[in-house]
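Input/output pair, single chain:
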Amino acid sequence: MMPATDPLRAPATVFIVDDESSIRTSMTRLLRSAGLRAEAFASVDDFFKQSDVPPNSCIVADISMPGTSSLALPGALAERGLKLPIIFVTAEDNEQVRAEAKRVGAAGYFRKPIDDCALLDAIEWALRDSNPSAEKAEL
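Output:
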């Protein structure tokens, strides 16, 4: 994934929602090293406390967290008039969780630990799919 080359264009934003601080830190570093803007939150509720959701953005969210389930994100975003691609991650993979992630419209689904290249590819695909006019350099 290439960093943005046009200084007037902001890089894509990836919101990381995970209750494990080490995961938030490592994903933030990975995404920033790929030229993406990364913002991390410890819960779905914390994510909704922030107000700036740029159009060229997506979410990477852990499924198993205390509080509001990340599987509720698509519906909660829709209630706010937002539609962002969501890539779900989990350490507790099973058929029921995969089916629920698919039902709510997951743009991707990964079991932890996650391969860095596969995650970056999934993010690029999700951003491109949600914004078909985007050029690769803008992602």
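The chain has five helices and five strands. The mean pLDDT is 88.
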